[in-house]
Design a protein that fits this description.
The protein is built from 18 helices and 17 strands. By secondary structure, the chain is an alpha/beta fold. Strands 3-2-1-4-5-6-7 form a seven-stranded parallel β-sheet, sandwiched between helices. The chain has a six-stranded parallel β-sheet with strand order 10-9-8-11-12-13, sandwiched between helices. Helix 14 links the parallel strand 12 and strand 13. The longest helix is centred in the middle third of the chain and has 23 residues, at about 175-195. The radius of gyration is 23 Å and the shape is globular. Bound molecules: uridine-diphosphate-N-acetylglucosamine and uridine-5'-diphosphate. Uridine-5'-diphosphate binds near residues 15, 209, 241, 276 and 292.
């Protein structure tokens, strides 16, 4: 017998989503929870979706919305139209999605407009760059989520600064760490096999992934990156499992012909999980614009060059693993060579740092929280009909606050997660509750 009759609907549609949701799915299964996996079809190539269902041994989704590629509006709108029908038919207790893709924002909007609670995994990451489609998607998803699973304390603080009530936020760790820890031994061996096959040496090649819109859809930027890689290939062999978006653009910009004839340059199809992770862990340096790869590289202590001007994973930069170089020709070359020369030292330093991104138990935590919430059916904090006058106030004496109403704790101007350290709290509550609070404070 399943624990819950109404299913949890899990929506995914791209490569990183299925990778990062796998630990949640596995743990919901362990708890015998009834779930329904819906694939939007934003990614459809074998190498971007099916390969992961096979490797992770997750049953293929029963429902595929077959949305395919398109403009942002097309991908979001088609997902919403098709998902709405599914949600109306299956009447889920909750809808969950992970990350910052068009599939995720569409899932959040569709669920919340049907008044179905929405839970966002990997909430609170911010690049503060609104030209990135991912930043738009994650801000919208977080703002309308009933439950925010923040991977780190920093992510939780970002949410609190945006006025998301504290009781909607759970700090769980990032599920990618669960996946890395589970697959790293298999990946080690797979990586060695691949390296042998490709005639490479351990820690003596550069691994590259590029696919973000801001890099691929700007010909000058993409060509600067690839010309920098051409220069770097004079020093180290370059391996690049190529995202189809990048491949298409390189053909359009007439660089592809040159690339296939370049010496010291290994171009591959997108790889399965343990093959990719294997190539990552044996690389001297990874160059990437991917979010997930920055997290994996940090976890595996691989020096990282991020081909972006910002990152929503600042912990990796602050702790010395990651350097932002944007799409600048000289920077890419000089910073990569610097990291490549010092890679042993960087790895040694990172051995001593505990991983702020997670401990490998995010999936267990998320599944448990979901099952508790569903059992208690307590997703909504209060019925605003009881008191429609919702207001905000800052209070100094935090000991008497009903935790349900706390948006953020503050220490001077700094938002903190810790009530003991905090001096003030921002609360969002019905007027009647705030009146009650004022009466309590007057006694002191
Ligand atoms: C999407 C996400 C991005 C995420 C990436 C993961 C958005 C806005 N972007 O980017 O945040 O990092 O997935 O990989 O949601 N294509 C294929 N085969 C496929 C899928 C795509 O050939 O199976 C090609 C098509 O030409 C398509 C292009 O890639 O037009 C872009 O696909 P799309 O899903 O729109 O964005 P991604 O770049 O994959
Ligand atoms: N990945 C993979 N095969 C590849 C390249 C990447 O399995 O050839 C994995 C990688 O390990 C990481 C995820 O894909 O877990 C990252 O996805 P992507 O870079 O497409 O998206 P982002 O993380 O930038 O949203």
């Amino acid at each position: 017998m399943e624990e819950n009759k109404e299913p949890i609907v899990i929506v995914a549609g791209t490569r990183p989503e299925i990778i990062k949701l796998t630990p949640v799915i596995e743990n919901l299964e362990k708890l015998n929870m009834n779930y329904l996996l819906v694939w939007s079809g934003q990614h459809y190539d074998y190498e971007l979706c099916k390969i992961f269902f096979e490797e992770f041994k997750i049953p293929e989704p029963r429902i595929n919305l077959n949305v395919g590629s398109g403009t942002h509006a097309e991908e979001v709108a088609k997902t919403m139209l098709r998902l709405e029908k599914v949600l109306m038919k299956h009447k889920p207790s909750i809808v969950i999605a992970e990350g910052d893709t068009n599939t995720v924002v569409a899932a959040a909007l569709t669920a919340t407009k049907l008044n179905i609670p929405f839970a966002h995994v990997e909430a609170g990451l911010r690049s503060y760059d609104m030209t990135m489609p991912e930043e738009i998607n994650r801000k919208i998803a977080d703002a309308i989520s009933d439950i925010c699973f923040a991977p780190t304390e920093l992510a939780a603080i970002n949410l609190m600064h945006e006025g998301i009530p504290r009781n909607r936020i759970y700090v769980t760790g990032n599920t990618i760490i669960d996946v890395v820890l589970k697959y790293k031994d298999k990946a080690y061996k797979k990586g060695l096999e691949l390296i042998n096959k490709l005639n490479l040496e351990q820690q003596n090649y550069l691994l590259v992934t590029v696919h973000r819109q801001e890099n691929t859809d700007n010909s000058e930027r993409l060509l600067r990156i690839f010309k920098a890689l051409e220069k770097l290939s004079e020093y180290y062999p370059i391996v690049i499992p190529m995202h189809p978006r990048t491949l298409n653009r390189l053909k359009e910009y007439r660089f592809y012909g040159k690339l296939i004839n370049m010496k010291n340059f290994v171009m591959l199809k997108p790889l399965g999980y343990s093959s990719f992770l294997g190539l990552l862990m044996h690389a001297r340096v990874v160059l990437t614009d991917s979010g997930g790869v920055q997290e994996e590289a940090f976890t595996l202590k691989v020096p990282t060059i991020t081909l972006r001007y910002n990152t929503e994973r600042p912990e990796t930069v602050l702790l010395g693993a990651n350097t932002l170089v944007g799409a600048e020709y000289q920077e890419i070359i000089s910073q990569t060579l610097k990291k490549a020369a010092k890679y042993r030292e960087i790895r040694r330093k990172l051995e001593k740092v505990s991983n702020p991104l997670g401990d490998g138990r995010a999936g267990v935590r998320i599944a448990k929280i979901l099952s508790n919430i569903i059992e208690k059916t307590e997703v909504k904090e209060f019925d605003s009909r009881d008191d429609p006058y919702i207001t905000y106030t800052i209070v100094d004496n935090i000991t008497n606050i009903d935790e349900r109403y706390v948006v953020s704790y503050y220490n001077e101007e700094v938002a903190t997660l810790n009530k003991k350290q905090a001096k003030k709290a921002l609360i969002r509550a019905p007027l009647s509750y705030i009146r009650k609070l004022i009466r309590i404070f007057k006694k002191y």
